[in-house]
Inverse folding.
């Protein structure tokens, strides 16, 4: 195997330009697919973090008595899927509003009476964070006595979930297309190398070289191309991630969301994918060439 | 022109025909070559001398008839065993078939490497045969830089 590896490395060095084209192609494909995957991974993290923070605001009918409020609270506690219930009185709500709208406090000060309703802030358990469950729970809560309105980011969550699924599908489709395009390019560059060395391969055959003796170095070449291309692609992505990521981190830290790079396992899988691409490229071109 | 590398090997041809499309290159050739026999085949251009050799090492398949080489029937030989058949021959091609991008050493070594010989043995043998023909100082030269005679010597001593 050492002999074959040495021959593969020598071949790569002898055909630098063609091999560089394949390596750059694989690197670009890995970069594009991985960048997409990285964005997807972090978007998923953020979506999960936001989903965890889903709250349902339960506004009470104006003039609800303390007893009715306690009754509503008791009924809310009996509904499964609810993690915590916090009462926000209309006065607390106004104070909160004043705090958030510091520049417009004069407007709020001039109010004759507090127009805000009493409310419960309901936090859901993680398992109840699917759009269907949220809708189901909000409908149940809306049916309770003394409840005037239930508010939650339903449409936003649903739209985002739909968009996310679409995004996922597009990602798979793009990934598959890039994979095929890269295999095709790798196969063609290896075919060019084979073509430039057809006389040598012909002579090898005439002197009794086995198919493996001819093929194995080319398979190794494909693997080396895939490995190098993947490392370059991932290296560029990591550099870009480190540069851009720090800026994002500052913006997102306020939202309690952090962004992350691929784990070592995923990096290894991407490299494996790149190597498979190179290997398949060699395989297809050799299959046709050696048959001729 | 052709020699059998192994002791006791024989070549037998029975009513061999070779056609290239409508053109007959070889018609009803029947031939036995015994062990240690030294045989010349001569004839005008287009008589089929090269074709006959190509049929022996399966560079071309026969159109009709049978060829036996060292007990192997060439019409039944599997693709995997063709390299083994070719290793039984030592052939000097008209155009020497040297690889221009490889050095003299690499050209001679390639044949042994292709036959799966160990590297230490390859190095020893290549240097030894090149010494015999006085080419030991041209180990790193490439074929295009050699004279016709030197190229021929390299080709002859491809073990």
């Amino acid at each position: 195997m050492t002999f074959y590896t040495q021959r593969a490395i020598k071949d790569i060095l002898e055909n630098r330009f063609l091999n560089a084209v394949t390596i750059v192609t694989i690197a670009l494909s890995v970069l594009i697919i991985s960048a997409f995957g990285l964005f997807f991974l972090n978007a998923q993290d953020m979506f999960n973090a936001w989903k965890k923070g889903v709250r349902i605001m339960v506004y009470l009918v104006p003039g609800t008595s303390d007893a009715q409020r306690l009754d509503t609270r008791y009924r809310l506690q009996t509904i499964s899927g609810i993690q915590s219930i916090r009462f926000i009185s209309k006065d607390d709500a106004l104070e909160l509003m004043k705090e958030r709208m510091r520049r417009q406090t004069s407007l709020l000060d001039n109010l004759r009476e507090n127009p805000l309703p009493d409310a419960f802030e309901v936090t859901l358990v993680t398992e109840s964070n699917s759009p269907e469950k949220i809708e189901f729970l909000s409908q149940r809560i809306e049916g309770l006595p003394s409840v005037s309105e239930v508010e939650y980011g339903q449409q936003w969550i649903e739209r985002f979930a739909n968009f996310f699924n679409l995004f996922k599908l597009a990602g798979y489709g793009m990934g598959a297309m890039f994979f095929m395009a890269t295999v095709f390019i790798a196969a063609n560059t290896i075919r060019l190398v084979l073509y430039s060395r057809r006389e040598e391969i012909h002579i090898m055959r005439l002197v009794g070289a086995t198919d493996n003796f001819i093929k194995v170095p080319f398979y190794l070449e494909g693997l080396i191309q895939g490995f190098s291309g993947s490392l370059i692609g991932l290296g560029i992505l990591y550099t870009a991630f480190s540069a851009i990521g720090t800026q994002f981190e500052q913006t997102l830290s306020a939202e309690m969301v952090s962004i992350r790079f691929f784990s070592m396992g995923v990096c290894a899988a991407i490299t494996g994918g790149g190597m498979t691409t190179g290997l398949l490229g060699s395989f297809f071109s050799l299959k046709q060439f050696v048959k001729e | 022109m052709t020699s059998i590398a192994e002791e006791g090997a024989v070549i037998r041809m029975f009513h061999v025909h070779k056609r290239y499309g409508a053109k007959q290159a070889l018609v009803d050739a029947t031939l036995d070559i015994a062990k240690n026999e030294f045989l010349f085949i001569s004839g005008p251009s287009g008589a089929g001398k090269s074709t006959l050799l190509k049929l022996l090492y399966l560079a071309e398949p026969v159109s009709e008839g049978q060829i036996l080489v060292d007990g192997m029937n060439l019409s039944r030989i599997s693709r995997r065993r063709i390299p083994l058949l070719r290793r039984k021959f030592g052939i000097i091609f008209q155009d020497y078939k040297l690889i221009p991008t490889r050095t003299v050493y690499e050209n001679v070594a390639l044949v042994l490497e292709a036959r799966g010989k160990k590297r230490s043995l390859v190095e020893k043998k290549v240097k030894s045969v090149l010494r015999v023909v006085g080419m030991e100082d041209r180990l790193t030269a490439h074929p295009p830089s050699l004279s016709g005679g030197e190229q021929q010597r390299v080709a002859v001593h491809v073990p």
Observations:
- Helices of chain B lie at 49-56, 82-86, 104-114, 119-132, 148-156.
- The interface with chain A takes residues 57, 59, 80, 83-87, 91, 93, 97, 99, 101-102, 110-111, 113-116, 119, 158 of chain B (CB under 8 Å).
- Residues 89 and 112 of chain B are 13 Å apart (CA to CA).
